[in-house]
Amino acid sequence: MRRVRGSQTKGKSAMPLKERLSRAAITLLLLFGIFSLLPYYIPVASLGQEPEELVFEESKFMVIDGVNLHFRFWESPGASLGNILLVHGYGGSTFSWRHTVPSLNDAGYRVVTVDLPGFGLSERRSGLDHTPAGRAELLWSLMDRVLPGEGWHLVGHSIGGGVAAEMALQQPERVETLTLVDADLYSSLSKTAELIYSYPPVRQWIKIFSPRFFFKEKQLKSYITSAYGREPDEDELQGYLRPLRIAGSDSVLKDIAGLGYGTVGSVSALNIPALCIWGEKDAWAPLAAGEEICARLPQGELVVIKDQYHCPMETAPVEFNRSLLDFIARER
Question: What pTM did the predictor assign?
Answer without folding.
Answer: 0.89
